[in-house]
Design a protein that fits this description.
Rossmann fold, 2 domains, globular
Length: 449
């Protein structure tokens, strides 16, 4: 089940002890039916399929505007605050963690301003500590929200907007704020129009967790120096691969295999990486699959681990705990840098047998040894292989998982593009905070506390 596309290959040898070839073929046939539902645009939630065409339809003038803002702010902002939550922050965070030097600030090798995030939590300590930074640094802000009324980013934007206006004055503050929001309606759009902020549009037919290839994700990437043209090109190439209706389609295969294992009682999928740069990619992946599939009493539970780090914490459970899980391993074939193990005359640590070996070679052997151990322990293993971690391949990964998620959710017979359960906590929070219109619910909830 490998495809010579130079983007992503899939290795399923790690599931063959647990399933039969006939079961695989039957599941692929079901996945192709779900593929038809997705690509015909006739399934549930089909008014949110704009992301399917994003790599082909991306507006080049939008990209030019993003680069212009990046060039302007590079000279006037040491820090850019990205305000958003969920899909309005996780894609950008994933890309920056994957592609930007982790010690860029300390080494003063930044391609752009330092990107920090706000509105992704309600921690008072975090907000206060962020304001300590913004008090000392020249900064600008991107606020990302379709409506402008989502509680966490709305609170953060109110605080940061007031601080910007106090620090720079209203006129200059307006040049330091960009809003990524709805085209024509919503509270944030109204504020942006009134204050004269530059804006980018979140398309009506693209939901938050599928928005990484819109200005939601691309603008913060551009500001950090990520090559967004290559990001889009990689996604476009992957779109061509995913649109091929065949049993060799890797997105169809992945959707088929995860649903096959789910049907065999493997109710948890662990996304595994052996590169810490992918930690937040896994967080993005968890939202994508968790919100898309976790409804109507169905769906795999998406979890993630960072190996080899978590082999020293979660490894024991994965090896010998309940047999309810399988692993999907992201395998980056080539490291971007080279570093070798040195020799020590005393060999006190007994590692001279590794002298001259690249650290990544050790990592690969750890990966192989872990795979075999976990399979022997009853954990099926799907391996997704990418040549290297760069903008093009990351764009391909984003699109691959979005497409596979749509297919997989339709295999479950659910709507991949809504999230009704998310609204429940919001109603309760508003009621307990005393928001007008929620008084009756507030009284009932307080009796239960």
């Amino acid at each position: 089940m490998e495809r010579e596309d130079n983007m992503i290959d899939i290795d399923i040898k790690g599931i063959t002890p647990f399933v039969t070839n006939q079961e695989i073929e039957l599941s692929i046939a079901k996945a192709l039916e779900a593929y038809d539902t997705l690509t015909s645009r006739k399934g549930r939630g089909n008014d949110y399929l704009g992301w399917l065409d994003l790599p082909a339809d991306n507006n080049s003038s939008n990209q030019d505007r993003m680069k212009q803002i990046a060039a302007e702010w590079k000279s006037k902002a040491q820090v850019v605050v990205v305000i958003g939550i969920g899909g309005s922050y996780l894609g950008a965070k994933a890309a920056l963690e994957a592609l930007v030097h982790p010690f860029a600030s300390e080494l003063e090798i930044n391609e752009g301003p330092r990107i920090v995030f706000a509105g992704q939590n309600l921690s008072q300590d975090y907000m206060a500590e962020l304001m300590d930074l913004l008090e000392e640094k020249e900064y600008a802000a991107i606020v990302i929200s379709k409506s402008g009324t989502t509680t966490e980013p709305a609170i953060a934007f109110r605080i940061i907007k007031n601080h910007l206006e106090t620090k720079y004055g209203k006129e200059e503050a307006a040049t330091r704020i960009v809003a990524v929001t709805d085209k024509s309606r919503g509270a944030l759009k109204g504020v942006a129009s009134k204050e004269g902020y530059r804006t980018f549009v979140i398309p009506d037919d693209v939901g938050g967790r599928y928005s990484v290839l819109t200005p939601v994700g691309l603008l913060p990437m551009a500001l950090a120096g990520v090559d967004i043209d290559q990001m889009i090109k990689g996604a476009a190439k992957m779109r061509g691969i995913c649109m091929d209706r065949s049993r060799g389609n890797i997105a169809v295969q992945y959707a088929a295999l995860r649903n096959l294992l789910y049907g065999k009682g493997k109710t948890t999928e662990i996304l595994v990486n052996f590169n810490p740069k992918l930690q937040y990619f896994a967080e993005w992946w968890k939202q994508l699959f968790g919100e898309s599939e976790g409804k109507e009493g169905k769906g795999l539970f998406p979890a993630s681990v960072n190996f080899t780090t978590d082999l020293h914490s979660m490894g024991q459970y994965i090896q010998e705990g309940e047999r309810i899980m399988f692993e999907t391993v992201l395998d980056i074939r080539q490291a971007n840098r080279k570093y070798s193990v040195g020799s020590d005359p005393s060999d006190a640590d007994g590692l001279n047998f590794l002298a001259g070996m690249e650290v990544e070679q050790v990592n690969k052997k750890a990966r192989a040894g872990t795979k075999l151990a976990h399979i022997d322990g009853g954990v099926p293993n799907i391996q997704l292989e990418v040549e290297r971690l760069d903008a093009s391949n990351l764009g391909a990964l984003f699109y691959f998982f979005e497409f596979a998620c749509g297919v997989s959710a339709y295999m479950l017979g659910i709507n991949p593009f809504d999230q009704p359960g998310v609204e429940d906590y919001k109603k309760n929070m508003f009621a307990l905070l005393g928001k007008p219109g929620y008084e009756e619910l507030g009284a009932k909830l307080k009796e239960r506390l």
